[in-house]
Amino acid sequence: MRVVDAAWQEWLSSNVARGCTPGSMVDAMVQAGFADGEARVAVHHAFDRRASGPAAPATVADPATNPYRYDAAPVARGNLIHAADREVRVLLRCERPQLVVFADVLSAAECAELIERSRHRLKRSTTVNPLTGREDVIRNRTSEGVWYRRGEDQLIARVERRIASLTNWPLENGEGLQVLHYGTSGEYSPHFDFFAPDQPGSAVHTAQGGQRVATLIIYLNDVADGGETVFPTAGLSVAAQAGGAVYFRYMNGERQLDPSTLHGGAPVLAGDKWIMTKWMRERAYG
């Protein structure tokens, strides 16, 4: 008989916090060997605990006074992950920050189609103003982009299902896909993807869906020189290879935010760069 020990209690709390349904959690526990009745009781108690009090406010971890605590990431173990309709290879895992580099997330044909359908819809990219919450055009983000509505068409819906399976995060907890284009010399200075909790403008964006918890960047073309995704604190850079991707998680189950996920897009030195980004939220979004 399986026991709901500390590890399972943490799993329950984490899955409640990220917006999983009770039914999906019961099914997962039954598959792991729990009796159906025991699983239902444990899940019911986990949701009761969540409802009994407000969630702790999100805070950026301070390495000196309040270090970030690395709990279990949702991405499955192993070097090959079955992601809905595709087998995805794992090339690299980093523990601090929590980061995974994948190959074969998209096929060559899917990459080419996403680039071609996005060309005529590009607009200058913006970033969130931390004081007002407005979307501003800034000099340190020299890209053009287009947003796709979640489930906008068959290709977008198929890719979103694959991403949800690969990252083990509910599809409804994701923002719409964004395709970005950087020309030669295009770059994005180091930044955080989470909304700074101490800035008044962040409340506008966290009111629906809560805080961002993780990012998946998918590369749609090979970049001959430059254009890497750089993580300065970790001393790591990921080269842009068509169909590959980098996933990084920056909020744990305690709602701490990981400052070591500071990242940026290095200048494109030859050719251009196309990427697609998926941001994941705590709760259902949109």
TrEMBL record:
Which organism does this sequence originate in? Answer: Paraburkholderia atlantica
Enzyme Commission numbers on file = 1.14.11.2
Stated name of the protein: Prolyl 4-hydroxylase
What is the uppermost EC class here?
oxidoreductase
Q: List the keywords (alphabetical).
A: Dioxygenase, Iron, Metal-binding, Oxidoreductase, Vitamin C
* InterPro entries according to UniProt: Oxoglu/Fe-dep_dioxygenase_dom, P4HA-like, Pro_4_hyd_alph, Pro_4_hyd_alph_FE2OG_OXY
Taxonomically, the superkingdom here is: Bacteria
Q: Which residues form the Fe2OG dioxygenase domain?
A: 173-282
Q: Which cofactor does it need?
A: L-ascorbate
Pfam families listed in its UniProt record: 2OG-FeII_Oxy_3 (PF13640)
Record's keyword annotation contains DNA damage: no
One GO MF term, please? procollagen-proline 4-dioxygenase activity
